[in-house]
Hints:
The chain is mostly helical and 149 residues long. It is 88% helix and 0% strand. It is elongated and about 55 Å long. The two termini are 19 Å apart.
Amino acid sequence: MRQIAEFVAVLACGLFAGAAAYVSLVEHPARMACGVEIAAAEFPPSYHRGTIMQVTLAAVCLLSSIAAWLAGATFWWVVAGALQVSVIPFTLIVILPTNKQLLSPTLDRRSVETERLLARWGRLHAVRSVLSAVALFLFAYLLAFAKSQ
């Protein structure tokens, strides 16, 4: 049971971290390179699809890391899972105001303000990428440490 829970936690975290890194390093810069009007038009469908995936992966990571701990893993598994799921409150508290503005039907997709919002969103999303990467590195360390015992 413990090994399965650890595998699921690492898999969910790895998928989240990979997707977040892709968005930060590839998708959002490409979106911005198309010009502000196209970037603003592409943002809503991308955001809606990504939200479902990211919330699910973060929650699965946390729940499986707790399951691993309950099955005998060190408490650091819960810490890594909590670090991964911290992207959810970060999004709700810090990023959501920017998201709401970018998703507003009254947004002028050609404005300098829209460009500023998209640039801000990219910087804020990079924080999620870093948080998930740190969680993944912690999981990798825990796996390596468990193998050495």
